[in-house]
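Example 4.3 (complexes with small molecules)
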Amino acid sequence: MVQKPIIIGVTGGSGSGKTTVSQRIYESVAGHSVAMIQQDAYYKHSDLPIEKRRQINFDHPLSFDTDRLLADLQKLSDRQAVDVPIYDYKLRNPSAETRHQEPKDVVIIEGILILDDERLRDLMDIKVYVDTDDDIRLLRRVERDIHERGRSVENVFAQYLKTVKPMYHQFIEPTKRYADVIIPEGGENSVAIDLLVTKVRSVLKHEG
Ligand SMILES: Nc1ncnc2c1ncn2[C@@H]1O[C@H](COP(=O)(O)OP(=O)(O)O)[C@@H](O)[C@H]1O
Ligand SMILES: O=c1ccn([C@@H]2O[C@H](COP(=O)(O)O)[C@@H](O)[C@H]2O)c(=O)[nH]1
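Answer. The structure with adenosine-5'-diphosphate bound is encoded below.
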């Protein structure tokens, strides 16, 4: 067991391959315990009716309960357990349940706006930006939102043009400058992922 967990932030636009890259890192650090935390779990609760919740800008930093995410990450960094919220994409609200997370050697925090907040950035040992062309990300998002998040094609297009695309350019893409590593083309870039995994293993060896 390492003294202090190594915290890895993985960001990029929606559909860039953040989850895939995080999964690859997760699978590669065998022998060490790993926790995966998603920023999406920390969307704020809204009392608005569902018709109004459909209009929420989910790509703006203020849509997240960043103080809670920060507190949880700080606790995991201090080797304390946390109760991570669970988000319901169909209801567009956090569910009533939480997920208990014990402290681990490696903590992967993944999400579109994790590098936007300086306090979060300061907790991270390695910051990764997954860089994938906008058109590829949009195609992936259409497929995912329809099949996994219960959305209509009209809804996906309207949301993309109204908030997802402008917020990406205003808030997400500018955080690339804070990344230690930029991975082009997401989850199948095995060279970049192998380099990253080598770095993670070397930090763990040094700490352990
Ligand atoms: N390099 C890649 N080539 C092809 N498909 C990919 C690649 N990276 C990710 N995907 C696929 O694209 C979709 C979105 O990837 P995901 O990792 O969930 O993105 P994000 O978490 O950034 O929204 C998934 O279906 C995933 O399997
Ligand atoms: O209720 C919701 C909450 C979030 N979204 C969208 O999710 C993406 C972030 O998730 P990725 O896995 O990185 O794609 C963000 O762009 C939000 O627009 C949503 O549509 N509805």
